[in-house]
Amino acid sequence: MNIKHVDPAPTILDSVESHTRDTINTLFCFLIAQGQTDYLGEAVTQLEHSLQCAHLARQDPKYGHDDEVVLAALLHDVGRFIPAAEKMHKMYSADGEYIGPASHEILGEHYLRGLGFSEKVAELVGAHVMAKRYLTATDKGYYDGLSETSKKTLTFQGGVFNQEQVEQAQKDPLLGAKLAVRRWDDLAKVANIAVPPLSDYKETAYQCLLESRTKFRLHSKEYKLPEQPTVVICVDGFDPEYLDSGLQAGILPTFKKLVDNGFHKTAKSCMPSFTNPNNVSIITGVPPLVHGIAGNFFLDRETGKEKMITDDSLLRGSTLLEQMSIRGVRIAAVTAKDKLRKILAHGLKDAICFSAERAADCTLDENGIENVEDWIGRSAPSQYSGDLSLFVLDAGIKLLEEHRSDFLYLTLSDYVQHKHAPGSKEADEFMKQLDTRLK
After folding, report:
1. Does the pLDDT at position 42 exceed 80?
2. Summary mean pLDDT of the chain
3. pLDDT tens-digit readout, 380-423
4. Which residues contact 22 (CB under 8 A, 6 or more apart)?
5. Cα–Cα distances in Å, from 24 out to 27, 45, 119?
6. Which residues are registered as beta bridge partners of 409?
7. Distance CA 392, CA 380 (A)
8. What would the pLDDT profile of 139-184 be if each residue is shown by its tens digit?
9. Is 120 within 8 Å of 214 (Cβ atoms)?
10. Which residues of 194-213 are buried (b: 16+ CB within 10 A; e: fewer)?
């Protein structure tokens, strides 16, 4: 008897489900707003065109049961009516790669991918102009069947494919679906016909987006969303001797459990072990060669002077924190010192991100939280103390207790490690305090 292993469906955080529902509501509001707008001089409105296209997809014997294809047909012109369409500009992928000037199909593809839709949906939306150019090259009667408006736009869209472009397109496993979306696009311009309303597609869109959001790719690696509250703690300057000393003294029971039952991996540093590259490598999953932050300082070529890196202007690409946040995971990032905070906050919206150093200055607009000292119940310590790191952990504990975050990134300072040797009274006491809070 053959037994096939089936992976269990992932557990989805309530926040991800809620955020996904809100995202679909917003997207459909954009569609509804197009109800009476002109569709390039055709006899139908933009919304009527989109609904006719989706209806044709549902009636198709080959693709009618493929929700992603139907959804792509509905959203193929999304790049025409989202707010960003008013100011098309150069587009960059999450990996920081330039992907060309924005046109409505590229803008739509980039937009849907940014929301967390599957690569299949995004590609189908981004390909309907490519498919038009392919069909005019391979189907002699196709060009004659285009509307006058569509013929005019062909020239501005790059014109008919040459033979090399045709052969390259034929290697694409999604070519058939892409051509189908294009043909429905051409047919969906009939005035005064009845088709199902937009509301018929809302649950399909929600389920497709929710499923695709359970995982994502960044810098050529695939990641899964957390299924329960998750905490990552970066202990700056954490020489193993500090841990070994505390374990031998029997004062670190929580750390001992982690050592006995957890896992360990040594990373070989390709750059000096500084705070910025360490943390950014963790939150991007790639080394400085890729993410661009190679130290705590950089050399300003114009002035010839070193400058401290205090924001994300040198960061290339996205972060794991940003990608999780886009998909509805509630992110909280708390740093000991403020110089790292703006890097961790890269791309985050509706997140909590603050430093212990500037806890007294937090605002809702800047940090997603305010009155931090009153909230924790004590004043922020001096930045020149081990207590600054303990304040970070106290904030993390409070966030977990109040269910305000799904994914916490807490990064501590190396003050104690700079001042006190492993095994010293001060170092062991600090490690003991860390251990107590980890419990």
Report:
1. no
2. 90
3. 999 999 999 999 999 999 999 999 999 999 999 999 999 999 99
4. none
5. 5, 21, 17
6. 232, 333
7. 10
8. 989 988 887 777 777 877 788 999 999 999 999 999 999 999 999 9
9. no
10. ebeebeebbebbbebbbbbb
The domains located in the chain, with CATH, are 14-213 (1.10.3210.10), 222-438 (3.40.720.10)
**Closest among 312, 271, 317, 313 to 294, alpha carbons compared:** 271
CB 320 within 8 A of CB 218: yes
Predicted confidence at residue 91, as pLDDT, reads 41
Q: Where residue 99 falls among pLDDT bands split at 50, 70, 90?
A: very low
Instruction: Label residue 84 by pLDDT band (50, 70, 90).
Output: low
Query: Within 10 A of 286 (CB to CB), how many other CB atoms are there?
Result: 18
**In whole angstroms, what is the distance from residue 278 CA to residue 309 CA?**
13
Point out which residues pair with 38 in neighbouring strands. 45
Distance CA(238)–CA(261), nearest Å, equals: 20
Give backbone dihedrals phi and psi of 92, rounded to 5 degrees, phi first. Answer: -130, 140
Q: Mind listing the pLDDT tens digit for each residue in 172-231?
A: 999 999 999 999 998 999 999 999 999 999 999 999 999 999 999 999 999 999 999 999
Residue 226 DSSP one-character state: -
Structure tokens at 273: 């072990």
Q: Which amino acid is at 106?
A: I
Average pLDDT over every residue of 30-35: 82
**Which segment of 239-243, 395-399, 430-434 scores lowest on mean pLDDT?**
239-243
Under DSSP, the state recorded for 45 is B
What is the distance between the alpha carbons of residues 219 and 322, in angstroms, rounded to a whole number? 13
The C-alpha angle with vertex 287 and arms to 284 and 291, in degrees rounded to 5, equals: 60
Residue 114 and residue 122: Cα distance in Å, rounded? 9
Q: For residues 40 and 135, what is the distance between their CA atoms, to the nearest angstrom?
A: 21
Residues counted in the chain: 439
The string of DSSP codes covering 269-312 is: PSS---HHHHHHHHHHSS-HHHH---SSEEE-TTT--EEE--SS
Between CA 130 and CA 217 the distance in angstroms is 24
Separation CA 62–CA 226 (nearest Å): 35
Q: Which residues contact 5 (CB under 8 A, 6 or more apart)?
A: none
The contacts of residue 248 (CB under 8 Å, 6+ apart) are none
User: Which pair of tokens denotes residue 329?
Assistant: 């995971």
Token pair recorded at residue 424: 């010293």
